[in-house]
Specification:
The complex is a heterodimer of chains A (395) and B (330).
Chain A (H helix, E strand, L loop, with lengths): L11 H7 L8 E10 L19 H18 L1 E10 L5 H11 L2 E5 L2 H8 L8 E4 L16 E3 L4 H15 L3 E6 L3 H17 L2 E7 L10 H10 L6 E5 L19 E3 L4 E2 L11 H12 L5 H20 L4 H8 L6 E2 L5 E4 L6 E2 L2 E4 L4 E5 L31
Parallel strand pairs in A: 1-2, 1-3, 3-4, 4-5, 6-7, 6-8, 8-9
Antiparallel strand pairs in A: 10-14, 11-12, 12-13, 14-15
Chain B lengths: L31 E6 L4 E6 L4 E7 L4 E6 L6 E5 L4 E6 L4 E7 L4 E6 L5 E6 L4 E6 L4 E7 L4 E6 L5 E6 L4 E6 L4 E7 L4 E6 L5 E6 L4 E6 L4 E7 L15 E3 L5 E5 L5 E6 L5 E6 L4 E6 L5 E6 L4 E6 L4 E7 L4 E7 L1
Antiparallel strand pairs in B: 1-2, 1-28, 2-3, 4-5, 5-6, 6-7, 8-9, 9-10, 10-11, 12-13, 13-14, 14-15, 16-17, 17-18, 18-19, 20-21, 21-22, 22-23, 24-25, 25-26, 26-27
The chains are: A alpha/beta (395), B mainly beta (330).
Amino acid sequence: MPKNRGIRSVPACLLIALLGAPAQAEITIALTYLRHEEKAPPVLSNLDPIPADLGIAGAQVALADTETTGSFLGHYYKLQVVSVAPGGDLAGAAKKALAASSVLLLDASAESVLAVADLPDAKGALIFNVASGERRLRDADCRPNLLHTIAEDAMRADALMQVLKARRWTRTALIVGPRPRDEAFAATLRAAAAKFGVEILAEKAWTFDTDLRRAAGKEVPLFTQDLPDHDVVLIADETDDFARYVGDNTWLPRPIAGSDGLRGEAWAPVLEQWGAVQLQNRFESVAKREMRSRDYAAWAALRTVGEAVTRTNSTDPGKLKAYILSDAFALDGFKGRSLSYRDWNGQLRQPMPVVNARALVELAPLDGFLHQENEMDTLGLDRAESACAAFGGMR
Amino acid sequence: MRGLWGDEMRSLFPCSVVVAVAAVPLTAAAGEIWVTNEKDDNISVIDTTTLEVVRTIETGERPRGITFNSDHSRVYICASDSDAVQVMDPKTGEVLHELPSGEDPEQFVLAPDDKHLWIANEDDAVTTVVDVETREVVAQINVGIEPEGMAVSPDGKLVVATSETTNMAHWIDTTTMKIVANTLVDSRPRHAEFTKDGKELWVSSEIGGTVTVFDVATRSEKSKIGFGITGINADLIQPVGFDFTPDGKAAFVALGPANHLAVVDMTTFEVEGYVLVGRRVWHVAFSPDHQQLFTTNGVSGDVTAVDVAAREPIKSVKVGRFPWGAAMRP
């Protein structure tokens, strides 16, 4: 990739050795990255395997970033990574992790996230959801000990719809994959389309059960031939299975968007502005791969803890949470605006890049999408829409 | 609607912030403003009398920081992606040689005796000290992650480096070349300057949206300056470069995507007013007579000349792509 990125390791550990004794009492905060592994379904292409350290590498880069500040202040961070196999004893691992650390970075499905957050041991802990974009965790199923650094799925869909609306590409057709996650994202796309005045003129279920790789050029034109005229093909394909074979094979020459093609993402390798290239460099030097949204969510969670510890000089999860949800909190997320948390459901408020494979197309919220408090809140569940009551007493 | 200038990237009318052209003061003393164009790999030289680009000079890749030595016989340019500091004869525009700079030099400061160049290596979390005569690296000092702002005290005894991700000002003793203190500032510190009397250090925090003023003797926080412009979201007010009037009375602070300069009273630390300039304003430089201030506007690709006394924009001058640094040559 033709980028001018000098890949260098950051000598974070050197700082500790080189600098004198810190002025204040030393404190240590322990964090656990707890992953409940999921068996990924088989997909057609082998081109983009899911990295084994997805998410974890983001936490590790954030640890190095945070340790430098900590080394100047006498604040020490300990990160342990625990990965539970599919069907393994997640509750047992969570109890063990919570006994050792009061901050969890939780990489699991919505169901598993709730199972951990509802453990008696988790009362008073600070848990970051770094993997599930499901609405219910920000809605009726929110929890007072649970913050979300991964973008809500609706934030991805809303960001995309803002771009389609701004382009006046408002006539769409939707192809929905066969898996439950595909239908869930299709529902999110429908809601976002309605929110921003984008029409979905027709929908089709993806029914192919053959290896399309050799037949896409014959099959996909026929599959899309009976769609009413449209500007964009929306695709809900959340397991990254078939969407790549739809692009450039459609009956009409139309761009694809949604799960592939033009899409909203919390983070993407094409980001270079707002200092993002620095973070990409640090990440690539550690992980030897490009940074993805889940890596960014884990990075943001650990950086959030670091920022709160730095400013409050405390490791008490209650104090940290109060600071994180306060107006004083401002996280530099390399996306041009300071990041903060929604005090109605604990979601990290952030700009959402809308990208294609090669470039940043727009950074949502786009100009003209207004909000009475903060334009970033045009993306995802807003205060009035969320049924979350767990954060009621925070302000 | 939101403030007309409220957003850095997406205005329907990209030229809408080019301000109305007022009469150019005829009294301005002759001089030049040298502007590095980060995405064009060159320098635009603006004549401060005619307010026109009179020369364009090629540089290394991604030029950012730029500074002249005391007698203006040499100009130093951070060519970030060439991993070098270029030394240029400003008369001929010829690159005389390069200095070893460490990886990805972004900003630097030249010691008052013109001997040592202190360079922030953004990708490497170090500050590199180079002797400009022997062209050798004298020291490399580990600082926080993404060092950027560099300042030297008027007596040359202290250098401060600020690190964007570590959120600190690192105070370095120039005799021992060791860090003597680290002080926290708000998120993403970008620029640092000592006041001319050496008593205060100012540090801008881009994401925190503040400027912190330190008392140099005690290295303690003396004041924190916040900003607010009607119609512009608070999180788009992102202070970056700034400079002081020579009488020590006013500071002009570039506010990034807020597309304004703030004018700060240096005694009360109150904001006295805002001046509309171009989009994504990065850095500033005074004309030789200090009657004009020039701002580099990264996104609109121009430089705004501001009347310092009237605190009004005079004219915006088109330069190259992504103008970043600015330095004055009499």
